[in-house]
Design brief:
membrane; 2 domains; Helicase, Ruva Protein, domain 3; iron; transmembrane helix; 6 helices; mainly alpha; 153 residues; metal-binding; elongated
Length: 153
């Protein structure tokens, strides 16, 4: 029973981690705007923590970005305008899910293309390797017989 309580407490602490990043003084009074801010913050990258959203990060820059998002929402910006403002200010790296437009198309296409080239190269190599016959000209009769036994198994 005690182990169950420990697991429950550990699970609550693990799930509560991201909620601790947003400070109480950052939360907006309007619950609709606050939910929009949380949704936007979960899609924006913390520039200090790398692959962590600003909603989850405790870094000072992430806090500043969360406040900036909330200020823009209170000013009446749409979600797209807020994201565009942050992209203009910090660059497209701020997006956790980059767009598939412009030069990013190369990044989206490069990995599958390289995978297909590697797969094709591997298939060609394996096909050529299967076609090759072992060179038996320098083998003795006993070695040829043993080779044939191994190949026929």
């Amino acid at each position: 029973m005690r182990a169950l309580h420990l697991i429950a407490v550990a699970l609550m602490l693990a799930l509560n981690g991201p909620a601790l990043a947003v400070q109480p003084d950052e939360i907006l009074d309007n619950p609709v705007l606050e939910q929009r801010a949380r949704d936007l913050s979960s899609g924006l990258r913390c520039l200090v923590c790398r692959n962590e959203s600003i909603d989850e990060s405790n870094a000072d820059l992430a806090r500043d970005m969360r406040i900036l998002v909330r200020e823009r929402l209170v000013a009446g910006d749409t979600d797209d305008e807020v994201v565009a403002f942050l992209v203009d200010r910090f660059g497209e790296y701020v997006l956790l899910r980059p767009t598939t437009e412009g030069s990013n198309v190369i990044l989206w296409i490069a990995a599958p293309t390289l995978f297909l080239f590697a797969l094709g190269g591997a298939l060609i190599y394996l096909r050529n390797r299967a076609r090759q016959q072992p060179d038996t000209t320098d083998l003795s009769d006993a070695e040829k017989q043993r080779l044939n036994e191994l190949l026929n198994d």
